[in-house]
Amino acid sequence: MRQVWLISGPPGCGKTNWILSEIKKHGGSCGYIRLSGFSEKSLEQANSSEIDFVFLKDQIPQLIDLSKSSDHLFSDQDNSLIFIELSQFYLPNQSGLAGIDPRIISQLENLKLLPDQYLHFGRDTELSIKDTLDFTKIESLSLNLQENVWDPPSLNTFWFELVNGAYGDVYRAKALLNIPDGRSMYFNWIVSQPGSQFLQLNDIAPPKGRPQRISQLVIQGRNLEFTRIKSTINLCLINDSVLEMHQASLSNQQLAATH
Amino acid sequence: MKQAVISCLHANLPAVQAVLNDIDRQGIDTITCLGDLVGYGPHPNEVVDLIKEREIPTCQGCWDEDVVDGLDACDCSYPSQLAERRGHLAHKWTTEKLTNENKDFLASLPTSIRRDKLLFVHGSPNSQHEYLLPDMDAFAALERVEMAGAETLFCGHTHLPYVRELGQGSIRVTLKNTPNKQTEEKEMNLPMRRIINAGSVGEPRHGGSKATYVIFDDKTNKIDIKEVSYDIDRTCKAIIEAGLPPIFAWRLNHGFEFAELAEDASHVCER
Asked: Could you tell me if B88 lies within 8 Å of chain A, comparing CB atoms?
C-alpha cells in the first residue's frame, strides 16, 4: 500500500538526510518532491529543491522525481513510499495531519498527494531535534552556477571564509559545485554542527566542455554581503582556456592508462 | 647580547609600532628585519619610512622584490586562483601608492645579511620565495643552513614562528680515484644547526591575531618567540578605507591559522 509522508522543519534540521536514511531502509520504490514553503516576516526561504533532489537521486538512482509528474506513479497496491520535504520555520499549531499549513494542503491536492503521516522537526519525537534552530531573522541567497567550474583550492578557501563569517553571519550553506576533473561536490553546512559535510557525487561528468548538470549554491543567514559573495565566487571560477587545459591533461592521463 | 628579529611587516603600521615599542622597552638595540615591508596592508610608505628612520638592517622580501620588479615570481607561488587574483590586487594597489624613493629603497635591499655564523634571509638562502616550513625534510633543511655556511639561519615568509634544531647531522661521501686507487668512505659529523623563523609582525598566521617576532641572546643561545598585541581595528579600518580587499581585514582580525601555501611549498620560481 502506498504511503505518503510529509516531512517539515526549519533550514538545516536534517530533513533531507533523514529522508535518505528512510529511503535506504525501505524495500520498495520511493518518490520524492520538495516544496519550497513560504517566506514569513523577516524569514526568507531559499530555493534548494534541485540540490536536494540531485543529492538524493545520486545516492538512490531509482528514486522517482515527483516534481516532474506523479501520473505514472504507484497505485495504492504498491509498496511505495513517497516523501514530501517542506521547509517551514514555525511549529505546526496542531498535532498530526491537522497541523499541516492550509496553504500547503492546496498544493498537495494539486499534486494528488495527500499525506498519510506528517512529521515536523522539533514537534515529533520520531525526528531528532538536536539541530533545530529557532530563527528570528533570515536572508537567503540562491545562485545558479550551472556550467561553472571552480578552481579547487579557491573553492576550499571560499568555503572556509563563507562558513567562518567573512561575508556575514551564515547559518546554513548548501551547494552542488563542479570541479575541473568532472566531479560534482556536495557541500552541506549548518551553524549548529562542527565542520562541513563534503561528498563527491557518484555521477562524474565527461571531461569535455562545460558541465550541463545542476550546480547551485544556497546560503541563509543574517547581514549577508551578497555583492562580495558573488565577486569572490567570480575570482574562484575558471575560464575556458584553463578548463580546456585541465580537461586535456585528464584526457591524456586516461589515454595513457588505456595503453 | 640580545637582539631582536622581525619579519613580514606587510604595511601594517600599528603592528610595527607596537613591536618596536616592545623591543625598545627591553632595551634591545640590535634589530634585524627579514623583509616584506609591504603588501596586503594599508601603510606601505609609513612602514618603509619607519624602518629607514630607525636604520634597521633589512633583507629584501618577496613582496619588496615583486613590487619593484613587477611580479617577478610567476603565479606558481600562489596556492590558488583566488589567492593569485587577490595578491595581484594588493600588488597593484601597493605599486601605485609607494613613492619612487621608497621603491628605490626596497630595490636596494640585500637578499641576505650575515653576522659571523648568523645568517638572515627572508625565505631561504636560495630565494626570497622559498618557504622553509617547520616540518620540511630534515636533510633539505640542514642543506639550506650548511650550504649557506651558517650555524643559525633566521628566516620568515611562512608567517609561522618556530625554532628548529638540527642535531646529529652528518655528511657521508664516497671517494673514488683516490691515490691508492681504492674507494674510500668518509664521514663528517656536523655541529648542531638551527633555523629560527620570526613569524610575522603585520600578518600573523600562527593561530592568533597578535604580532610575532623573536629575541635571540647570543650569550645563552636562548630564543624567545614574542607575541605583541596591537590596535588591529585601526589597521582593519585603514584596509577598508584604502579600498583593499576587505577579506584582508577579516583574516587579520580573526588570526586564523590559515597559511596559504603553494602545493609544493619548497618550489622556487625560476622565471
From this structure: no
